Amino acid sequence: MTEKIPVGILGATGMVGQKYISLLENHPWFSVNYVAASPESAGKKYSDAVSGRWHMQKDIPNGVEKLVVGNANDFNSAIDKCAFVFSALELKDKKQLMTLEEEYARAGFPVVSNASAHRWTEDVPMIIPEINPEHTDIIRDQQKNHGFNKGFIVVKPNCSIQSYLTPVYALINQGYDVSRLFITTMQAASGAGHPGVSSLDLIDNVIPYIGGEEEKTEKEPLKILGQIENGRFVNYNKLEISAHCNRVPVYDGHTACVSLELRSKIGITPPYTSQIIEKPYIDLDYFIKIWNNFRSVPQELELPSAPKRPIIYKTENDRPQPRKDRDLENGMAVCVGRLRRDPVFDIKFVGLSHNTVRGAAGGGILNAELLKAKGYI
Ligand code: NAP
């Protein structure tokens, strides 16, 4: 590819928007050409709009600091400046955000969104490219249903989902019939955006409530594992999930402790591939092998942001840890550890992923790369 595709970032001044700007510096396919945020930031030079609240370790990339921030509520400002937009907006009114993303799509922009507003729209795909890349097939139906011409909306799931769903999917993909998950998440402060939870509330503390998060954890995997029937998604109905979600004083990195039950009980030969039938039913070493060997479409397509190893198992007893493991594969890998038998369920393990990279901007960029590789962008 000779010329880079100009992209816009809606919500460019926020925690996720800043991560997009940081990760897209030197991206081989995309270059940031338009930034937009609330009316309070609109009209300011980007570096002035984020003055005192730039949270990234690297400086603002040269090409971006001088861009003038547009008003994200006005899609007309993006016209002729970018070929598609990443949406990292946080609006109090979810209906307003749904309408706004639809306006961008109607104006011809593919919208790759991090927001939750459209996650349950029945013809909007919610994609983790290693799990359900074929869900992009619904885009043509969506365009027809909504009268979009070139535009469309694709979303990514909640920021903690991949920490446990990718390893669970790797097992399902090998024929293991996972029936129940019991999940306790420990979610980083950056997951609440900026300023997020006040430091006096969070330091030396654990908050056992994140509004709406348990519902997302319990339901979003069912759409991701579901399938398209007659132009809409039908949820996967073979999995039950119970979740506890906690905010913890970690800067970046969402951890999930997972207990997992398999439908077929020990001793009954499950319908596995011939390769797996030779293995004992629960063989922890074999599960670890499945995780370490797991590869999918982004790796086959060699997408620029795809981790070479999407799941990395750490054998040390005290891993994964956010500080040590969140940046594996540039923050795009899921780190798994502590696989052991569970006396109530069948097995248990701990998963971890970087919430603002894999769980937000990096995941959004990987979605856009998949869409580009499939010819939608
Ligand atoms: P954030 O730090 O609060 O940033 C919010 C962004 O939205 C800012 O750019 C803000 O602009 C803009 N905005 C706020 N009100 C607006 C309005 N009325 N009109 C137009 N723009 C407005 O939030 P965040 O953590 O980056 O999250 C962004 C989105 O990603 C949310 O939908 C969130 O649920 C989702 N998400 C976050 C994470 C994470 O780990 N943080 C992970 C996955 C998904 P100003 O700066 O001008 O106010």
Could you walk me through the main structural features you see in this protein, from its secondary elements to its overall organization?
This protein has 377 residues and is of the alpha/beta class. The chain has 2 domains: 5-159 and 360-373, Rossmann fold; 160-354, 2-Layer Sandwich (Dihydrodipicolinate Reductase, domain 2), CATH 3.30.360. Helix content is 29%, strand content 21%. The protein is built from 14 helices and 14 strands. It has helices at 15-24, 46-49, 62-65, 94-106, 139-146, 161-173, 199-202, 213-224, 274-277, 284-293, 297-300, 322-325, 328-331, 357-373; strands at 5-10, 30-37, 70-71, 84-87, 110-113, 152-155, 178-187, 227-229, 232-234, 240-247, 254-262, 311-314, 334-341, 347-353. The strands form 3 sheets. Strands 3-2-1-4-5-6 form a 6-stranded parallel sheet, with helices on both faces. The chain is globular and about 60 Å long. It starts with a strand and ends with a helix. Mean pLDDT is 93; it is low at 265-269 and 272-280. Residues 11-17, 37-38, 40-41, 72-73, 88-91, 114-116, 159, 190-191, 193-194, 355-356, 359-360 line the site of NADP nicotinamide-adenine-dinucleotide phosphate.
